[in-house]
Amino acid sequence: MAATTLAKGITSGLRASMEKDPKVVLLGEDIGKLGGVFRVTEGLQKDFGEDRVIDTPLAEAGILGTAIGMALRGYRPVVEIQFDGFVYPAFDHIVSQVAKLRARSLGYVTMPIVIRIPFGGGIGAVEHHSESNEAYFAHTAGLRVVVCSNAHDAHWMIQQAIETDDPVVFYEPKRRYWDKGEVGDVPDGPLGTARVLREGTDVTLLAYGPMVKTCLQAAQAADEEGRSLEVVDLRSLSPLDDEAILGSVEKTGRAVVVHEASTFLGMGAEISALVTERAFYHLEAPVLRVGGYNVPYPPSRLEEEFLPDLDRVLDAVDRSLAY
Amino acid sequence: MSDNDVAPLETAFGVDHHVSRAEVPERPAQDGGPDMVQLLNPEGERVAHPEHDAVVDGLSDEELRGFYRDLVLIRRFDTEATALQRQGELGLWASLLGQEAAQVGSGRALRPQDYAFPTYREHGVAWCRGVDPVNLLGMFRGVNHGGWDPNEKNFHLYTIIIGAQTLHATGYAMGVQRDGNVGTGDEERDTAVIAYFGDGATSQGDVSEALVFAGVNNSPVVFFCQNNQWAISEPNEKQTRAPLWHRARGFGFPGIRVDGNDVLAVYAVTKAALDAARSGQGPTFIEAFTYRMGAHTTSDDPSKYRVSAEVEVWKHRDPIERFRRWLTTTGRADPDFFDAVDGESDELGASVRQRCLSMPDPDGTAMFDHVFAERHPVMERERAEFETYHASFEAAR
Ligand SMILES: Cc1ncc(C[n+]2csc(CCOP(=O)(O)OP(=O)(O)O)c2C)c(N)n1
Ligand SMILES: [Mg+2]
């Protein structure tokens, strides 16, 4: 397949799932004629009709609540939350119902719902449009939380997310929506697995979503200075791919976790604990975190100073190597 | 009635025959219908209305010219802000084009002690409250998330989370009740609260909950819904099957539809609702029937989802044009007045532009300010790291 944008990778993935399974329905605000504010569902209502691509009333709790009912009726709802900061009205349904119904029903009931959330900053947006709230959901047992970082994964992971019987919170790095990449013919491993995107020997960079590109650039820059960085795209935040993480860190002995979310109680804290508990004797340095500060996401004129960038990643690499 | 008495089903369950199921229009007529209060038609002719004539007739020519000035200046401000966005000086702008009368009419009905809770589009209300319009630009420019002290002019911060502010307004009104500032008869003490929200917002659970709380508490709050016919790309019929103003009925208080492009009608209807609230008669739901003439925001492309013929229809209902005609034909304003307002509007545009351009970017450490009442160790450490890190670049220069 030719090079396509990350956004269009999701579109083609959604289309493939909808063609394969008539039970797949899309729900969201402005996803019909408009094709969503990021145009990810563009053309789908025209091709699949208003019964399968539903412009919902403006109510996130309503969207998730009705998605639950549709799932109970045998449908596989794929829900679009317009922006990360607008998922909270639906939080109750996601954590109290979606995440728990399988266990409560002793497995008789499944919740094959996919909750798509464009997330993260870097697009100069106003408040509530740049958040990274993945840790809230990763903290909730019963939900899978995955993040794509490129067009290929976007295309395949959305299909895998729709196919699994678990509910999936599917994060899309909005500032990478327009990045182009090749989409291969087969997925790179099942849902739940991480992927080594660049092999290296000195330090492991662990990242997901928008920060994967930043880390790849950092690794490229470091390479020019004779440092070999390994870049692992986590792809799944819950469950975490322990084996892939530990395998890489045991090899390099050093780890830096990078994400946009605040480091305080972010994914980096969990990964750092995992590595420290399970690979302590392989470590040459403490696991370091590069991320947002413990403050509300700042106004856009300050976001460059809030968000990790190549320099901050390399700074952490230097500090790791200095041990 | 004893427990054993069985009432006929219809009365027992209060079957409401008002709305029959058959009445679901494809695309509801956008003329507001016969129930809409209108005092000035699109041609600029005064329409008599027994209930509201007195209030409007009591307005002085100066007050009426003041409304016109508000309408023109706020549109000028809005146009300038859109231009500033196009030139990269603002990250985004949510235009109020077409909704000036709804905002000025309601904003001018407020008293200083009243409190307004806006969405992100209430630039005209902010203007009426005396908020410096340049302060409205801060969050759209990305230098802050708010930019004014809400208690200075009793105008809350813009709320982007759809519908949330309707509950805040209701809670504020519950506070007003507990302060004993309702129904005392003292004009400077009795206080009303007004919550602004859109047609799309009516779908949010928060808004229904606000109506519940306000009804149950009989709170002094006016729910002012600007039905501009669209919620981004979704037309009214994706949000509601019944006219929005009907909704109040189920919550136990009056609802009313007013021509949102008629500044006189909006003023009269809002004033009546605020008076009722202040005097202890509880909430009112006002649906201001209007139209979003522009895109949802500067990021939006309405050609994807709506036809220009619809916009043309609404152009003929322009709120400023009809008011200008009426002021002219009734001799309440002359060409000199209109020229003066135009001159003032050009000055406003120029000064807004200049002051926007000179708005400084905040210092990076500002993100750590005001997050907590007191500093604490995690934030102190992070602030120190932030400062050291950025200082290292300065040193390297
Ligand atoms: C909880 C929440 N969900 C989604 C959005 C995204 N959004 C911003 S404005 C808007 C439409 C609002 O329509 P309406 O209430 O009619 O107000 P209008 O913009 O027309 O003034 C949407 C969906 C949001 N801001 N908050
Ligand atoms: Mg609207």
CATH class of the largest domain in chain A: Alpha Beta
Number of DSSP E strands of chain B: 7
Strand content of chain B: 5-15%
Question: CATH H level of the largest domain in chain A: which superfamily?
Answer: Thiamin diphosphate (ThDP)-binding fold, Pyr/PP domains
Number of domains of chain A: 2
Q: Cα-atom Rg of chain A, whole angstroms? A: 19 Å
Q: In the CATH hierarchy, what is the architecture of the largest domain in chain A at level 2?
A: 3-Layer(aba) Sandwich
Return the average pLDDT of chain A rounded to an integer: 98
What does this structure look like?
The complex is a heterodimer of chains A (323) and B (397). Chain A is α/β, with parallel strands linked by helices and 323 residues long. Chain A folds into 2 domains: 4-181, 3-Layer(aba) Sandwich (Rossmann fold), CATH 3.40.50.970; 196-321, Rossmann fold. Chain A has helices at 6-20, 44-48, 60-72, 91-98, 101-104, 134-138, 151-163, 210-224, 242-252, 267-278, 303-306, 310-321; strands spanning 4-5, 24-28, 53-55, 76-80, 114-119, 144-147, 168-173, 180-181, 195-198, 203-207, 229-233, 236-238, 255-262, 288-292. In chain A, strands 3-2-4-5-7-6-12 form a 7-stranded mixed β-sheet, sandwiched between helices. A 5-stranded mixed β-sheet of chain A has the order 9-11-10-13-14, with helices on both faces. In chain A, strands 1-8 form a two-stranded antiparallel sheet. The longest helix of chain A has 15 residues, at 6-20. The mean pLDDT of chain A is 98. Chain B has 397 residues and is an alpha/beta fold. Chain B has 2 domains: 34-357, Rossmann fold (3-Layer(aba) Sandwich), CATH 3.40.50.970; 364-396. Chain B is 44% helix and 8% strand. Chain B has 15 helices and 7 strands. In chain B, the strands form 2 sheets. Chain B has a 5-stranded parallel β-sheet, sandwiched between helices. In chain B, helix 9 (205-217) links the parallel strand 2 (193-198) and strand 3 (221-227). Chain B is globular. The relative contact order of chain B is 0.15. The interface between A and B is large, with 38 and 43 residues. Bound molecules: thiamine diphosphate (TPP) and magnesium ion (MG).
